[in-house]
Specification:
With about 230 residues, the chain is of the alpha+beta class. Helices cover about 60% and strands about 10% of the residues. The chain has 10 helices and 4 strands; from the N terminus they run H-H-H-H-H-H-H-E-H-H-E-E-E-H.
Length: about 230
Amino acid sequence: MLLASVSRSASRAPGLGRRAASAIAVKYSKAVYGAALSKSPQTLNKVHTELSSVSNAIKTNPEIATFVSNPTLSLQDRNKGLQELFTKLEGTGAKKDVFSDVTKNLFRVLSENGRLGETEGVIEDFNELVAQYKGELTVTVTSATPLAKDVLTRLETTLKQSQTAQAAKVIKITNKVNPAVLGGLIVDFGDKTIDLSVQSRVTKLNNVLTRTSRPFLSSRSGTNGIFSVESV
């Protein structure tokens, strides 16, 4: 199986880290969104479901994650791997659900252009476009530890008072855990980010200390050769 062989070979070589949605990914997401919606709202929903299954497979299956992020594969291997992926996700027998032409064409073009590594970014931005189409506002609250349900409820009540939330039909709040924030919260909704994290405050403090320490260091770095900060 190609996906398995790719995973084994790639594990011996340094991999590429996943990037956030890029300008390239946004172009592909807009293209597939337009193509799906031009056919029908039902097609848009089907493509949304299919891309969600691909995204879940990438997150839960190391072989598939390695496959889409491997830039060294030939076009032939990429196309063969995609066919295996579709077969795996479509299922078999009475429960088989064949992927739409829109979804398959998206991955065919990504493969031909050597852009399979943009897959997750494409799906993320596509999901945002679908949410906007449905009048949904997804709010992502990032915290160092899981938030209690009553805290999320209070956040939702507060956010509903914003103009952005009032324009939405549905508000969905998800809690993302990231120990790196140390404490506090980072709230992402629409095109806005509210950074109330401890990590943000620490970073700002470090920046201030770095700026204010430079004159001190430069004034002490060469006093007749008697004292040098660099030698301490």
